[in-house]
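Dear Dr. H.,

I hope your travels went smoothly. While you were away I took the liberty of generating a structure for the chain from your last submission, since the lab meeting agenda had it listed for discussion. I wanted you to have the full record in hand beforehand rather than looking at slides cold. The sequence, exactly as received, is reproduced here:
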Amino acid sequence: MPIREIVEAAARSALRDGWRILAVAVTVSVVTALAEIAVDHLINPNDLTLSLLAGISAAAVSILGTVFLSGFLARLVRAANHGAANHGAANHEAANHGAERVTIGQVARDLPWFRLIRADLLVVLIIILGTLALVIPGLVAFTLLAVTGPAIEIENRKVLAALRRSAHLVRHHFWPVVLLATVPVMVASEVESIAPEPSGAGEILEVLAVRGILEGALEAAIGLVLVELCYRLIALDSRSPSASPASGADSARS
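The corresponding predicted structure, in token form, is as follows:
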């Protein structure tokens, strides 16, 4: 798999729509960080009911933000780079300008929210179970399921079909996916530990700067790579000897 081409394609998307991508990514990261800070520092830990509700709310904000950002990135990449392939050569010119028509409102209305949220929760559960068994199974599970979300967006698959599709696409290119997806996500997960534990307004702003800007930029970069990776894996799979027209049939199942 041409790793360099995937990274370069993601970089072109970042350069073409950089400000819009960064604005959405930073907003999502800041809102998520604020929700977590509120739970950690503004909620009385002795009030178990309130603490539980606040924790669930913060987790929901994080999941919704992640789903929205990944969906937004998938729509931008599809409109700008893959529209002609998806909708025919007659739409080539529209595809070249499609990124301009992808708006936050459109993404919010059109995203398959429930499928993406269910898939995200299932992936997290599978990874947790694998990590509890041993760390290595958890990392393997994460790698195999790395393009579940993009598979839902790109191929309009249902949840279980998308999980199977991701594992099918990745298993023949496992180590490149480790380099493009697993390692970057692990690095990004360490960013939160860089930020200090806030105890005042100044430190809260410092946390938001680290979490909002740095983490937001990393999440956007990883998201773009995952979308381009999924497109490339789909293309490679379509050219494999075992591929058949019926291979997409399970998108209507599960």
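Two observations you may find useful: Residues 84-100, 244-254 have pLDDT under 50 and may be disordered. The chain is about 80% helix and 0% strand.

With kind regards,
E. W.
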